[in-house]
């Protein structure tokens, strides 16, 4: 699909895509993409220019570079990735490139860049899929799930390669990665999520990149990106384990998967606080949370301004606000 694009630019929490031929834009596929939660949120700026929102998400390339999978984690991650990819691609073209597959810092779901274009043969092509799986086999870091890595390498050499076949083959490895459970454990597991959840968060630092789409025949879809300038100066929140950039004009912090900043705590409400930027200043408001919010020890009952070093406590979680321009 890269051959359909004139360029891709990622800046902060926004991904902009330019089509080579604006006449290929398909309004029907565009509406399908907007209604599909497996796709990055999409807005059409002009007929040939598209804007995707990727705030608080990490690219798959960055995640694989910075996360080491435990044995069962590797299995759950790869199964979840391929299942959601095939679902997204079922009725719309997807850009199969590890730089443009996104996931939250916990890796609990994936979001894909779907292209609203007219294309007769837009289902994932064998060569693109082959390169994608080869990349996974080489870049997944694990010292325990060697059966998965070996399977991925072996399956790319087969004559009948396809992503559905890869997924089917991975399912046959399930007994190796799931411990035998008692009846009570199986019953309890029915009520729990069976997907991947990273032990530590993987947060991609804000940056700006630009690239011209290459002919896939000349360069693999996962080729390295050239960074053209230093990370953008941007406000962020920080806790004991991670930093959370504040892209755009408004950021929701809470427990919900849809939040730009997701906090894993039962004490934090689904939508806990909203941060907004106005004239270069950041403000915070509590969204009627169950367990409250505090700014420098003072209960947050109205919108308050955040300054460099301000301590923001939401329920049992403490974050410190940093404004890049004041540092």
Automatic annotation (TrEMBL):
UniProt source species: Candidatus Merdibacter merdavium
InterPro entries noted in UniProt: Cell_Proc_Reg/RNA_Proc, FHA_dom, SMAD_FHA_dom_sf
Phylogenetic placement of the source organism: Bacteria, Bacillati, Bacillota, Erysipelotrichia, Erysipelotrichales
Origin: domain of life: Bacteria
Domain FHA: 251-300
Name of the protein in question: FHA domain-containing protein
